[in-house]
Amino acid sequence: MGADKRGRGAFPRQFCVIGAASPWRAVALMFVAMSCIPAGDTASKLLTSEHGLSPVFVAWARFAVGTLAVLPFVPAGTARLFSDWRVWGRGALMASGIVSIQVALSMAPIASVFAAFFVGPIVSYALSALVLREAVTPLRTALMAAGFAGVLLVIRPGVDMTPGLGFAFLAGLFYGCFLTASRALSGLAPARSLLLTQLVAGTVLLSPGLLLTPGDIGWTEALLLLASGLFSMAGNLLLLLAYRIGTGSGLAPLVYFQLIAATTLGWAVFGDLPDALTWAGLALIIAAGVASARAGRSGFGRAGTVR
């Protein structure tokens, strides 16, 4: 009489939007998307740390590849957006963040870079409250503080802080500002149009990076540049698709899978394993992020870190 009519194989309700199979597809897409992003950064790290390419050039190539991939799918009338200085400001924040993280990847283990970068959603949470006057709660503010403590465990400000992690932290600051700008401009145009504007702005603003291009790029470097851009773009597109067929409250915690993927790739490709304090910081960031994603509609968990 009181039996669960969903059956044993039913999916948790918070993931469901359309169709019985959609929730499982959404989760699968999220896991793939959150693996693609660290895969793109792994290719970038190989380019900067082992093949000697400039981080600025690698960042420019990522924007250029992304522009070419997105261009066919952009709505008509997008070009008019480039007359708005706010679009260029938002693009400059993203470009600065990507350059900073490329520098970080050339110096530091990928898992530590990702952990430090996750200060971005915390910054966005604070700026959304201060600048956009969005509501905050004591619980989620406490979770922000816990997440920030996790970041501090990873970067260890002071004598133990490396330049690479400093650049990763800086990248997170830029990204937090970018997320806030994105929320402020969300009503300006469709998401695909805004995506193209940030890619084009990054390509244009970082074009001086072409002057740093080595003259002897071979097939290996070319393939890694392509992989860096395409993996990043695939992560973005799969994330958007996952949110179309699943719900934010159910999928947001899965954003933190990229920290696990980054740690796995760092070990498999570079032989890097985090030390005890970094493991503790990673665990605290993930726990605080997942809790915040489940506690609220926006903020640390929702913001994610898609690049």
From TrEMBL:
- Species of provenance: Roseivivax sediminis
Coiled-coil stretches: none
Query: Sorted alphabetically, which InterPro entries does this protein's record hold?
Result: EamA_dom, EmrE-like
Keyword set, alphabetical order: Membrane, Transmembrane, Transmembrane helix
Q: This chain belongs to which protein, by name? A: Threonine/homoserine efflux transporter RhtA
Top-rank lineage group of the source organism: Bacteria
* Family matches, as Pfam families: EamA
Cell location: Membrane
In which family does this protein belong, per the annotation?
Belongs to the drug/metabolite transporter (DMT) superfamily. 10 TMS drug/metabolite exporter (DME) (TC 2.A.7.3) family.
Locate the transmembrane regions by residue number: 15-40, 52-75, 87-105, 111-132, 139-159, 165-182, 194-211, 223-243, 250-270, 276-293
Q: Which residues form the EamA domain?
A: 26-155, 163-288
In the bilayer, the protein is annotated as: Multi-pass membrane protein
Q: GO CC: one term? A: membrane
